[in-house]
Predict the structure of tRNA/rRNA methyltransferase (SpoU) family protein.
Amino acid sequence: MSATSSESMDSLVSSLIKSFTSVPCAAIPSILDCILTSTDVSSSSLFDSLLNAFSDLLKGICKQDHGKSSLVQSSYISSFTTSLCHLLKKSGTDTSGLQSFIWRGFLLAMKTINSNDHELLNLIAEQLSDVVIESNTWEVINVSLVPFLLCSVGLSIGVNRNEDSAQNQWSGYLTIQGLGGMQNGSCVDKESIPPLYDSFPLAISCHVLTSLLVASSRSHQTLQRPLDPMVLSGCSAEIFFQTLLWDVCAIAIQMLSKSPDSRFCTIHLLLPFILRTFACDSSFQISLHGQVHVLSRDSFSRNIWKGCLALFTLGPLERRDAYSVLSLYIYILYSKERRGDITLINGVEEFDIRAEQQFWDEIKKGLVAKEAFVRKQSLDILKTLSEHDERQCYTGRTEMNMHERSSISLDLTKKAQWADKEAKSLGVGQVCNVTDDNSSSCQQRWGAFILLYEMLEEYGTHLVEAAWNHQISMLLQFPFPQRSSWSNVYQSQLETLKGMFSWLAVLWERGLCHENPQVRGLIMQSFLSINWEDHGICTDLVPESFIIGPFLQGLNDTVHHREFGEFVSELLSFHLASTSQPLCCMN
């Protein structure tokens, strides 16, 4: 390029950059088209000049003390990215331009953006995805950006270089020589790669990986055009998606056992997309290095559960994250909208977390935890499962010593009617009544349990005082199937007497440990006022751990001995008054 042409290009780029402060991003493509139409400037030369200016801007931001872009700089980043991506689209399948943009623009930009600026992060990631989708250049991303991101995650979480990866590229890109050998020398600024590579934010890496998964999934589902011979021998959107999904699933499982930041990225950035993918497809066949592998919902679910079990054995932060993982897992795979039965894989039933007794034990622990967040997550899990499971309950003969209905009237008292109305108005739910339809009694029991728990969790004494005893009596009067054993663990939760009393113990423990002393008094009074003679063998079903634990601890609560203290105080006052009378007479 001659000196005159160079000066002309510099002047053009300078004017264009100045306009970025006053022109919205949506108008930039039209401005670029006008420039290309009205001048003899080529799109490739304009792209190179803008990329040089963009790279200089980003390097300047990185040298600042905080290393993050300001509001004005973020606006420039958005405008530059929009311009460069538009020019990349006009260049078609020019892979060198895309590689240059990735190394000198995209990665540096993502590093300098504040991780909380989700709008800008999404904008830049979507713009790159649009370029790749339109030009069908997944192979370029597969051999450049993906290995970089995977290795960046590996360095952040301390993954062993020898650990297995779908693409087997963990160790191949941990050195500048590996990066240099992968890319053309003209496309990679080798001096900028090591600091960028070693300190690339984990959250940004996970964000970009998820964006690529979303884009490739959308691309292979919507594009109906035949593949080019180059794509057939390289990497189509479908192949890219499946291979990357394999790696991201492996990363997500590993990150569960790492630092709190790693688990945060897994829960909020990786797992939502992975689980929604498995909610639609139970398995994928993936060809890697000439071998066919199967990535299944069954194996991923088992690994998720193993990870949660490990977290449950650790401290409160780890337990909190385990409940967050389970809440997300249940919400997506067992939601009301997704009612498919558990499938069979090679004749073996797919993993069902509801069949794990320890799952239910941990939910019970979560419901009585001191931390409100954990209690809320546990309750959300129960609500989702109760809405999902609308199968018909056993409709045979029913036990009747709970079977023998209590002489208590089932008609709502005036006070209970008020409580029912109050509960509905507050969105707590509705007071459940016993019906003779055994097929719906299981749902009613869960409804009653959730209502009682929400009374304790969300509101003061008025609902507990009005409706607690009534609802407890309803639970004690539900019909139960006369069946000694159940084929699944989750069927025995509230559909057997033993199971029901284990959940009643959860309610009693939560009530006896309530923050409001008046509520604690009401729950203790309710428990002690139950006429156990009317319920036969049910006295033996109250969990021993509850009696010798929360119940005995509750008996030591001074709120339950207030009347006794007042009696002693009155007796002492009377005694003092009596003994002081003779002294008064002597004076």
User: Anything to note?
Assistant: The two ends are 122 Å apart (CA to CA). The longest helix spans residues 562-586. The chain is about 65% helix and 5% strand. Residues 460 and 519 are 8 Å apart (CA to CA).
